[in-house]
Amino acid sequence: MERAALQQYLENLLEVARFKDYCPNGLQVEGRAGIQRVVCGVTASQALLDAAVARQADAVLVHHGYFWRGEDGRITGLRRRRLATLITHDINLFAYHLPLDAHPELGNNAQLARLMGWEAEGRFGEQDIGWLGRLRQPLTLGALARQAAARLGRDPLMLGDENQLVRRIAWCTGGAQGYFEQAAACGVDCYLSGEASEPTTHLSRETGVAYLGLGHHASERYGVQALGAHLAECFGLEVEFVEIDNPV
């Protein structure tokens, strides 16, 4: 597949133009024009790039790419090594941040709901990034935490009474603890995201809304996998997801 055709398809599919983001979405580093073999991952770390080189990939597709707003823009140290790896081996880097969180079928929030068996009912938050819904059957907070641990492969951070009954939930994968207060205002019993910060505990105590921190990496593994599988099905590309373990 031609790089330009893949880039245009992804921009249309993920509605890139409608998002205000903290980084450029789309083709971040240009490589060879023809693409057949794609390596997917959560973050374009050096470990993922090395895996792409070993697999002779034409492109890397990730959720977390480069050139974040506010970062030091100098190409030194690890930034130089990463870019040198891509350029030396003529590998394209495609990265989609908020567009991949928000997509109604392939996005991180949609895929987390599919994995967990949650029923989506609406959106909330800036650019409708957060999702609202309910459990198919009410569970205690402790039971919901154990279910998440079993399906995500890691124990979540739990804030709240483990015996509290959970029916209505809100969720937003990754570092979205800043949406907790907006989620609580929607009348949910529990908010689930990837990380927690110091205010998260106080918000949970003072609103009475439970919080589960599922892990930033753990909660965002599934959107890029779904997107990669979609590209393989539509265009016959060879796509492989490479898991680079991250406890955060």
Structure report:
With 248 residues, the chain is α/β, with parallel strands linked by helices. It folds into 2 domains: 3-97, NIF3 (NGG1p interacting factor 3)-like (Udp-n-acetylmuramoylalanyl-d-glutamate--2,6- Diaminopimelate Ligase, Chain: A, domain 1), CATH 3.40.1390; 103-219, Udp-n-acetylmuramoylalanyl-d-glutamate--2,6- Diaminopimelate Ligase, Chain: A, domain 1 (3-Layer(aba) Sandwich). Helix content is 37%, strand content 25%. It contains 10 helices and 11 strands. Strands 5-6-8-9-10-7 form a 6-stranded mixed beta sheet, with helices on both faces. A 5-stranded mixed beta sheet has the order 1-4-3-2-11, with helices on both faces. Strand 8 (165-172), helix 7 (180-185) and strand 9 form a beta-alpha-beta unit. Helix 2 (46-54) packs parallel to helix 3 and helix 5 packs across helix 10. The model has no long low-confidence stretch (mean pLDDT 98).
